[in-house]
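Usage

Read records sequentially. Each one opens with the input sequence:
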Amino acid sequence: MSTDGVEKARLVLTFFAKTRPSNTSSTAVPPDQDALRSQSIACGPAFSQLLTTQVGPAPLTLCDHRTLSPGVFQSTYIITPPFPDASKLRHHASITAFEALHAVEIVFDLYSIASTHSSLRPLRLAVFDMDSTLIDEEVIDELARSIGITSAVSAITARAMNGELEFEQSLRERLSLLKGVKANVWEEVKKTVSIAGGAEELITYLHQRGVITVVVSGGFAPMALWLKEQLGLDHAFANHVRKTFRSTTELILIHTRYPQLVVSPSTGAFPFPHLSGDLSPEHPIITPEYKRQVLESMAQEHSIPLAETLVVGDGSNDLLMLGAAGLGIAWRAKERVQREAPQRLNGTTLSDLIHILGGRLEDSNK
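and closes with the structure output:
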């Protein structure tokens, strides 16, 4: 965060217990006991001293502490320059040791008080990855399942998302294995994927705050457009499909600067329109750099400072846009992404992000 002309900022720490009681569980910990536990951990002298040590010379004042739900609590500090780097705080060995000792995950967020007059984090643009983020599955793996080669494709996907393979190389390698998948496979895939738990509540909350919502995916436009409609997202960016049916070519365009998946006509080997296993050379692939470019161009188009943006993703191809956002959160991410992302969270529901943003879960039900 830039410190130019900023006299004060909020440093907000949201603690998530790694084991949280279910609202329906008969063994759930009563909220009052949870509140006592949160106070003893987050407001205890040991953590205050630890945080002060890591923040450095900047004056730090605890101004609010509250329990948000069983197992989730939040501490807000007022801080003056020089401001720390919130992502470096998260990665410090002493913080990591504290999290392990108390079985919690801490999300650090730092933003200017000058940009907001409310207790809510200033936010105007939210960009999400699709696969394993807004939906539970990897679409390309579901395509592979349709022709019985799930294991081969999934193994490449896992390595690519962990940053062990260059993204374009891995995408082309996986697509080459999908030659022969029926061109109308998308309707079947839509039946097999699941919208991630809490996604609808989170998007509802963001729209209530007037936040622009975007999905940007290294996957394919038919699924991204479907998800856009399902969740009511404002924009969708993804790889495109160029369909060829016998002698008629139909080019489906959404944003012409993005790539297309080539679909071949009926042949002797495949007597039906099918995926060719190739990408069209006419447009670039949505690489990590392109994902970051979507964030930056959308922010510029709507005159939104990057400090007022949120990015959520799980793969190594999301790291650049996670790092460029005002708040970048790796959600249930791959090992490398857990290590390198500005912030990370391994919850069971995306509605947890509502807590981080200063809202309440009931806000998403209005």
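Summary fields computed downstream for this record:
- Residues 23-36, 241-260 have pLDDT under 50 and may be disordered.
- The CA atoms of residues 338 and 344 lie 6 Å apart.
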